[in-house]
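Box 3.1 A note on notation
Throughout this textbook, protein chains are presented in two layers. The first layer is the amino acid sequence; the second is a token string describing backbone geometry. Keep the layers aligned when reading.
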Amino acid sequence: RESVALIRQAVEGLPPGPLAASLPPLPAWEPAFGMVEGWRGAILHWVMADGDGRLHRVKIVDPSFLNWRPLSYALLKNIVPDFPLCNKSFNQSYSGNDL
């Protein structure tokens, strides 16, 4: 309830006008890269538009994809029964790895 109240308060405090800015079309065949911080780490976005301004390629990289190698190092010299504890401490997203 408090979260909803905070969101309402923030929305009511917005200046009047549109909430989104218009952007020019992506240049044809030029890659664009973006990064935002998620609660597991950096979320990476890569896009490329075709000659008609439509998305040609899109790749999203979840933080879990980048965290599998550190998990493998954390597991070195541990016994097999410790795997679930180590794995859960990294809180990996299995589906995020497949994006």
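The chain has a mean pLDDT of 87. Residues 11 and 42 are 27 Å apart (CA to CA).
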